[in-house]
Amino acid sequence: MVGSIDWQQSGALATVTLSKPARMNAMTRAMWLQLREVFLDISTHTDLRCVTVQGAGAHFCAGGDISEYPAFRFDPDSLMHFHEVEVWGGLQAMLDCPLPVLALVRGNCMGAGLEIASCCDLRMGATGSVYGAPIARLGFPMAPREAALVQQAVGAATASAMLLSAQSFDAAHMLRCGFLAWSVPDEAVQAQGDALVARMLALSPQAARLNKQVLRQAWPAQMPTPPSAYAYAASAQHREGVQAFLEKRRADF
Questions:
Q1: Which residues does residue 131 pair with via DSSP β-bridges, in sequence order?
Q2: CATH architecture entry for 4-201
Q3: In whole angstroms, what is the distance from residue 253 CA to residue 241 CA?
Q4: Which of 86, 129, 215, 234 can bridge 125 by disulfide, Cβ–Cβ 3.0-4.6 Å?
């Protein structure tokens, strides 16, 4: 299964679904491109008032599809294109969406999933959900703009723990650090999400759009990333981390 980003309209609500259940909705390169197109499309619909983002099945998104990595990650130019065009294109389209965006998170919300959730204005997480970005185990860092996005959403202390110690956190921690606005029992996520959407849809759509503009203006400016940020592409540790994951063994750094 190649995976897909699907969206459906129900009245004034757009529901976006990350779908690759066989790999806990891990993002492929094609899915990043689809994410951009989906949010660009949604942004043109003047009859919409709210967007929800969720994963198909039991998980939100377990990260990137690492099976694709050997084909492009070890060359600086292709690595930079992946992060700055494909990934950031999808994330920027989410950030630019004029509508309130709500993430409904179940199961794993790791790496790419954490970045996608960070682009949402509101986040509701199941009590059993898990959050992190343990890419240090794979021998590479988070791309600069993606790291700034995550740090803004989860806070400096939690971002540092995720990236420097490969620590994962439960919903209770993410609620305390302000990443989640609500943590609800796993079986109640859909019902509680539906209730919140109904509340939001009853409010002024003009006020929602204007409030979102004000809140987004408070974010730090997104600076261009220098090519030197991807100079590690051909490094031995980068290769070893990815290869060890694919071979299901512990990396030897």
A1: 109, 169
A2: Alpha-Beta Complex (3.90)
A3: 8
A4: 129
Residue type, 14: A
Within 8 A by CB and 6+ apart from 38, the residues are 5, 6, 7, 16, 93
> What are the structural domain ranges in the chain?
4-201
pLDDT, one tens digit for every residue, the chain (253 residues)? 589 999 999 999 999 999 999 999 999 999 999 999 999 999 999 999 999 999 999 999 999 999 999 999 999 999 999 999 999 999 999 999 999 999 999 999 999 999 999 999 999 999 999 999 999 999 999 999 999 999 999 999 999 999 999 999 999 999 999 999 999 999 999 999 999 999 999 999 999 998 988 887 766 556 678 888 899 999 999 999 999 999 999 999 8
The Cα 8–Cα 45 span in angstroms is 12
Structure tokens, 52 = 């929800």
